């Protein structure tokens, strides 16, 4: 039995399959996920699990070199400071490695994802596309 880290078997499997430059997304409960993309559905009730807890766990278990966020997840969103702190603190992602697209552009990008993790988050536009890095040189 696994002691720590990602315990969800499908999520753990997908994270282990990532190579340098592969992209995947963490989504709120309402983001439309294309049928052709693998969906790892963690949502079990509104708000559970929340976006930041899932993001923190994934950043702690992975090497991430970049992130893409919807512009609509703007400065006035109460979750944005926590989100950016999480990306920079747990993920080590510099502000210059964060790209902003419109929500519509972000949804279009989903067709190019290895997988999408659906959370129970109900904060609008609380989605991120992450790009896998490498832990060596």
Determine the strand fraction and express it as a percent band: 15-25%
- Protein structure class: alpha/beta
Order of helices and strands: HEEHEHEHEE
Q: What is the radius of gyration?
A: 14 Å
Total DSSP E strands: 6
Number of helices: 4
Query: Stretches where pLDDT falls below 50 for ≥5 residues?
Result: none
* Helix proportion range: 25-40%
Q: Strand order of the main beta sheet, please?
A: 2-5-1-6-3-4
Give the overall silhouette: globular
Strand count, sense and closure of the main sheet?
A: 6 strands, mixed
The whole-number mean of residue pLDDT values reads 93
Separation of the first and last Cα atoms: 32 Å
Tag the structure with descriptive keywords:
alpha/beta, 6 strands, 21% strand, 137 residues, 4 helices, six-stranded mixed sheet
Task: Give a quick precis of the structure.
With 137 residues, the protein is an alpha/beta fold.
Can you walk through the features of this model?
The chain is an alpha/beta fold and 137 residues long. The protein is built from four helices and six strands; from the N terminus they run αββαβαβαββ. It has helices at 9-17, 51-61, 80-89, 103-109; strands spanning 23-27, 38-41, 64-70, 98-101, 115-118, 128-132. It has a six-stranded mixed sheet with strand order 2-5-1-6-3-4. β3 (64-70), α3 and β4 form a beta-alpha-beta unit. α2 (51-61) packs parallel to α3. The longest helix is centred in the middle third of the chain and has 11 residues, at 51-61. The chain starts with 8 loop residues before the first helix and ends in a 5-residue tail after the last strand.
């Amino acid at each position: 039995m696994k002691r720590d880290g990602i315990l969800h078997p499908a999520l753990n499997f997908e994270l282990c399959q990532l190579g340098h430059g592969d992209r995947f997304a963490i989504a709120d409960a309402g983001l439309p996920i294309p049928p052709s993309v693998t969906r790892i559905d963690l949502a079990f009730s509104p708000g559970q699990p929340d976006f930041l807890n899932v993001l923190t766990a994934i950043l702690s278990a992975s090497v991430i070199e970049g992130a893409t966020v919807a512009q609509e997840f703007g400065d006035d969103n109460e979750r944005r400071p926590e989100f950016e702190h999480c990306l920079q603190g747990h993920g080590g992602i510099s502000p210059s490695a964060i790209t902003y697209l419109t929500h519509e552009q972000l949804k279009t990008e989903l067709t190019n994802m290895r997988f999408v993790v659906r959370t129970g988050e109900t904060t609008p536009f609380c989605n991120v596309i992450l790009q896998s890095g490498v832990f060596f040189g």
